[in-house]
Design a protein that fits this description.
By secondary structure, the chain is of the alpha/beta class. The protein has a single domain (2-177), classed as Maf protein. It has six helices and seven strands. Strands 1, 2, 3, 4, 5, 6 and 7 form a seven-stranded mixed sheet that branches. A hairpin with a 4-residue loop joins strand 5 (96-106) and strand 6. Helix 3 crosses helix 4 (127-135). The longest helix is centred in the first third of the chain and has 14 residues, at 41-54. The chain is elongated, with a radius of gyration of 16 Å. The model has no long low-confidence stretch (mean pLDDT 95).
Length: 180
């Protein structure tokens, strides 16, 4: 059985592009224990998550993923409040940033950890648009304070890379390297 070590609703939707034969068991690891460079964080966190579940279920396969948003070398987590969401979105306005996902797949036969990068180019955002988006509630549970799938707000100009990666799970890379 495949175990998805994530409680993210977006990851649950995305894994269904590959398989419907999975269960969800969140890892609940303490993500604050790693003090490493932002670019290295997703792969290391995905390993921690995957192996914490695999230790309990060694006869199953485990897939874990972690996604970060990085602007000018600085990690942009989930906003703690509306003010922080406004600051994040203002800093992203008109700029390019990188979304990095690290994923780890582990089973008795296979161990894989990979990272996938997607570059996201934001439109120039007005304060009114930012406030309207924040009031929708959507940015509050997302790294970087935005969801690329929120098309009504026209935040993103274009991307270079995998759209699913920005949403939270690099489906094509996983399909190619895990489910081939």
């Amino acid at each position: 059985m495949l175990i998805l070590a994530s409680e993210s609703p977006r990851r649950k939707e995305l894994i269904r592009k590959i398989t419907n034969d999975f269960i969800v068991i969140p890892s609940n690891v303490d993500e604050s224990i790693l003090h490493i460079a932002p670019h290295d964080l997703p792969a290391e966190l995905s390993k921690l998550k995957a192996y914490s579940i695999f230790a309990k279920y060694p006869n199953d396969s485990v897939l874990a993923c972690d996604t970060v948003v990085i602007l000018d070398g600085k990690l942009m987590g989930k906003p703690k409040n509306k003010k922080e969401a406004f600051e994040m979105l203002t800093s992203l306005s008109g700029k390019k940033h990188v979304v990095i996902s690290g994923y780890t797949f582990v089973s008795a036969q296979k161990e894989i950890t990979r990272i996938v990068r997607t570059y996201v180019y934001f439109n120039k955002l007005t304060p009114e648009l930012i406030n309207s988006y924040i009031e929708s509630g959507s940015p509050m549970d997302k790294a970087g304070a935005y969801g690329i799938q929120d098309k009504d707000f026209n935040l993103v100009n274009h991307i270079e890379g995998d759209l699913d990666n920005v949403i939270g799970l690099p489906v094509e890379d996983i399909r190619k390297h895990v489910f081939n």
